[in-house]
Amino acid sequence: MFSGNRRILYLLPAAVFIVLCGFLLRGLSLDPALVPTALIDKAVPHFDLAPLDSQASPLASADLSGEVTLVNVFASWCGPCRIEHPLLMEIAEMDNINLYGINYKDDPAIARDWLTELGDPFTRIGADRDGRVAIELGVYGVPETFLIDREGRIRYKHVGPISEEDWSRELLPLIRNLRQ
Amino acid sequence: MISEIGHIALILSLTIALVQGTAPMIGAARGDGQLMAIGKTAALLQFFFISIAFLALMNAYVTSDFSLANVAQNSHSAKPMLYKIAGVWGNHEGSLLLWVLILATFGAAVVFFGGNLPPTLCARVLAVQAFIAVGFLSFTLFTSNPFERLFPVPLDGNGLNPLLQDPGLAFHPPFLYLGYVGFSIAFSFAIAALIEGRVDAAWARWVRPWTLVAWSFLTIGIALGSWWAYYELGWGGWWFWDPVENASFMPWLAGTALLHSAIVCEKRDALKAWTILLAIVTFSLSLLGTFLVRSGVLTSVHAFATDPARGVFILAFLVVVVGGSLALFAIRAPQLKSGGLFSPVSREGGLVLNNLLLTSAAATVLLGTLYPLFVDALGIGKISVGPPYFNTVFIPLMTPLVVLAGIAPVLTWKRADLYGVFLRMKFVAILTLLVVAWCLYETWGSTFLGTLGIGLSAWVGIGVLVDMGARVGLFRDRIRVSLSKAMRTPRSIYGMNVAHIGLAFLVAGITASSAWRTEVLRVVQVGETVSVSGYEFVFHGVEKIQGPNYSGERGHFSVNGDTRDAIQLFPENRFYPVQQQPTTEAAIYTSWRGDLYAVLGEPDAQGGWSARLYFNPLVAWIWLGALVMALGGAISLSDRRHRVGAPHRIMSGKANNRVATNV
């Protein structure tokens, strides 16, 4: 090997490291927990769910157009849902925000007790007992929240419990945007 | 008050580290003995003050002093004492303090054991160590201070994550850090050698014991972590290719390569620049692991609570330390003269191939770990890289490596006698084929990979036994002669062979537990019998239990073997009210043949319970193998040449050949 080439060879580790650092620096400003959905900007898949409470109104994909809507996927057995719940109650208090719930793989009786204890923020709740609709929606785990526009298309998905910050920085501005 | 003493001690050790990083370096450049001697005193003082800081934090945990924010967030008065102590390093701030404590311990150890080092080399090594300490101490003090006070003082703490309330946690991080941080010594030696512009056999001989120590600890640390995951996470697996696991595995692979290349450097005065580079890379990968775990750039099951400011700090530190040392390498390494020549078929050739495979493996893990980040940063999309990738790329890399380990003892330095190698290995190959045939007979119709793995394991194991037999002239010489030959065989040979036997155990355990694991998931009624891989599990029901800081249910299974008494298994589901978190405690019965593993699930409406029952063949061999490997490291460490072998630095090139002959 020629000596000139050798010098370059010795520089190689440092060069690789510089590139690596570039990526690491970029990585610091990215959020790895942000999971995209293949359904963004697509119409909500067709579904028709029975209500959680037999006296209440059911939830179907047809109900999700006409108004900007939030759909929260929750379960009584899910710890983070309990954390998220007070914020959902606050959101429900705000005027003209449509908040629907999908009760995921849950015992309806236990889910009803859970909502009686913590309060029920949802105008409609569909019971997705076998989780089939959640699969259609590409749900990874509970809680997840979908933002749906007037045309019934999914515009945003939030994975995990919504924090105050997520609400004021991400979701609320998006909702205002969609309303215009 | 005690906490304030700890805080002050930490600040003091930072100032001492600043002195230790500069004075000896200047002293070494000027040839000023007094300035150089400051390094030793400073290293001991630093160890003393960091110990005080660590003990102060431990005191706060033991006495449940919730006026410290760190204790309030991570401890609870009702926690058992062992976890109060282990809780010190069960969080970001405390584990950093453990990190710097171990760094200081190694610094002090260099002072104790480095009596025969040339003064300039010793001064420079201690200065480089101090530089690393400055980085980590300022990181601790400025972004992650464990002594921060909290007001108003809460009545009780938030408690420790129940998954971490386990004896495994008490020992896993200290061993892991002893490994990670231990490699800092090899790094400091490499930087010091680059500054001095001289690498010779004596240098390699000084570096090797430190590398052996770090490598053995890291091996045990990783094994403990994997064992913990196996029994605590409750789904029968022991390695998940999680980014944080990979973060510990990469330095291990690079460190293993370093361990082997340092031998060539010592015995044959070759591969100098490469060995230096490996020493830098190994510790850099340890630092990278720290960055990945604590910055939040990757999703992982056991990342610490993350904070972008911390990520920026560690990245800046990485750039200075790793970037600086690689730049130094690029400038200085081309001037290192390489010594001994060798033919491709020789022990050197084998070790070069070993290094290529190990570093390729490390690069593969690095690529797989960071690939989601690359793709995300380039805006191409979001992906995750999982076990299929790692298994696909690992098996082709590890297969030749293990084959090589079987041949290794037979290869001689400089030029191996190919015909002799062939003759010796022919015998090993026949025995291996017998094992493979037996394996095919026992597990007829099962996987190709399973048979391959068992064959590889047998190849290494038999290779080692045949080598030891040949060395002592077993069955050829009289017993007395054999014994005296065995006594005269250097410890390093035993070390190598024991470590390779460990590798054979490891390969067998990984293979069998992946290829022939049986899993049964079903709802069981009281009195019902479930058959798993020939073992009859009888379900006796579930009772309520109450622990010190949890409540839960305990199931009861008994398993009837053919001859021995019934084995009793008690899997538990626990609920920790402080954290509102459930955990599963698998019940495991370990034997040579494999593990019986039971996990209790949820009750159903008809009085039955769902349960997962496994038979994991040979799975305990994995951890046994890792322990035997670490034992091999310890035996090699006790070789007399590390103790008395290198008191005088060998100046002339000719003298190097003398040390090259004894193995």
Annotated CATH topology of the largest domain in chain A: Glutaredoxin
| SS elements, strand count of chain A | 7
What best-fitting shape of chain B do the alpha-carbon axes yield? globular
| Discrete helix count of chain A | 5
Give the CATH class of the largest domain in chain A. Answer: Alpha Beta
Oligomeric form: heterodimer
**Hey, roughly how much beta strand do the residues of chain A contain?**
15-25%
N/C terminus separation of chain A: 68 Å
From the alpha-carbon coordinates, what is the Rg of chain A to the nearest angstrom?
A: 22 Å
What number is the mean pLDDT of chain B? 87
Note the main sheet of chain B. 6 strands, antiparallel
Helix content of chain B: 55-70%
> What is the H/E order of chain A?
HEEEHEHEHEEH
Neighbour order of strands in the largest sheet of chain A = 5-4-3-6-7
CATH superfamily heading of the largest domain in chain A: Glutaredoxin
Helix-strand makeup class of chain A? alpha/beta
Biggest β-sheet strands, sense, barrel of chain A: 5 strands, mixed
Describe the fold and architecture.
The complex is a heterodimer of chains A (180) and B (663). Chain A has 180 residues and is an alpha/beta fold. Chain A has two domains: 1-30; 48-179, Glutaredoxin. Chain A has five helices and seven strands. In chain A, strand 3 (69-74), helix 2 and strand 4 form a beta-alpha-beta unit. The termini of chain A are far apart. Chain B is α+β, with helices and mostly antiparallel strands and 663 residues long. Among the domains of chain B are: 1-165, no CATH class; 396-516, no CATH class; 518-618, Tick-borne Encephalitis virus Glycoprotein, domain 1. In chain B, helix 13 runs parallel beside helix 15 (448-472). In chain B, 50% of the residues are buried. Chain A binds chain B through residues 3, 6-7, 10-11, 13-14, 17-18, 20-21, 23-30, 32-36, 79, and chain B through 273, 277, 280-281, 284, 291, 295-299, 308, 311-312, 315, 318-319, 322-323, 326-327, 329-330, 333-334, 370, 372-374, 376-377, 381-382, 580-581.
